[in-house]
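[Meeting: bench + compute handoff]

Bench side (C.D.) handed over the final construct sequence. Compute side (W.E.) agreed to return the predicted structure before the next meeting so the bench team could plan truncations. Sequence as handed over:
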Amino acid sequence: MSKSGKSSISVVVPVWNEEAGIPQLREGLVQVQELLCDYGEMEFVFVDDGSTDGTQSALHRHFELAGNYRVVAHERNQGVGAAFRSGFRHATGEIVCTIDSDCSYRPHGLQLLVQALESGGDIAVASPYHPQGGVEGVPWWRLALSKCCSWGYRRIAPVPLYTYTSIFRAYRRRVIETVSFQGNGFVSASEILVNAARQGYRIVEVPMTLHARKTGQSKMKVARTARAHLQMMRSLISKESYR
């Protein structure tokens, strides 16, 4: 804990072929550090998930002066869920945050998530589909997939949330140490929430605006992600039917 009694923070950032977006990412994380400067130590854990461009070099070039960062490298692309598991293993903070490398949520949002944990939550989730949230400029196919998946989970998961697919989150350390998940792709975001709810952890939604990425392209494979969500929903329905 810091002298002010507040917790140290780790920010886990999965990256895959994001060389062009690293300067924007650095700008956003500098703002995050300024907003959370009253907390304890802060570290950034970048998980390079098998990039084939200059992502790793760009990370070192833009963050080496800060010193409070590390890069965990996967030899091949494994997916955002696998990147989370690697990041969680290397994170040392009492609060562990995950963010999108494309900066689709604004930096001050992370401050809101940390404050939600301080108010009693175990997991704080950015929720663009909350009635007070919003979406700006996001491709219709991504919006349709995420909204449909969240609608489905809301009806069958242990806890009713508006948004299950956002990876912009803050966790208390005990959550990442005790909640396991198997998914390697984007479905892992929903899997973590479902499993955490089953274990009795309190999940808090924080209304937020999701913005379109400014650089690069989305790494989400739509058909593969949709199939993974459908398989997980079927598994949830099956488990509930036996209770």
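W.E. noted at the follow-up: The longest strand covers residues 42-49. C.D. will use this when planning the next construct.
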